[in-house]
Write a structure and sequence with these properties.
By secondary structure, this protein is mainly beta. It has a 4-stranded antiparallel beta sheet with strand order 1-6-3-4, with no helix packed on it. The radius of gyration is 13 Å and the shape is globular. The relative contact order is 0.42.
Length: 93
């Protein structure tokens, strides 16, 4: 699981469209995009999965995901060890 990143709730209003691009290098597994409405991250937060991406290790282009929602924070949870296999995750709020 990654560290939290702000979902920019003050900028998004009611039409919050989030875009994620995941760059991989032979990663096999799933990547959950999780979000919370909690104002502070304390370790006992309620996270919900807003999108799940599946990778088979043959991806040569970034894998995109779009989702709507006014969230406080986002994080990513990998089903397999992402070390050197998930090279970059770009987020546009």
């Amino acid at each position: 699981t990654t560290d939290k990143i702000t979902a920019e709730p003050g900028l998004n209003g009611n039409e919050a469209l989030h875009t994620v691009a995941v760059y991989t290098d032979s990663y096999t597994g799933t990547l959950e995009i999780q979000a919370t409405l909690d104002n502070q991250i304390t370790g006992i937060n309620n996270w919900t999965t807003v999108s799940t991406l599946t990778f088979d290790g043959t991806e040569t282009e970034p894998v995109p995901a779009n989702f709507n929602g006014v969230y406080s924070y986002l994080r990513f949870k990998a089903s397999a060890d992402p070390a050197s296999k998930i090279t970059k995750i770009l987020v546009r709020n």
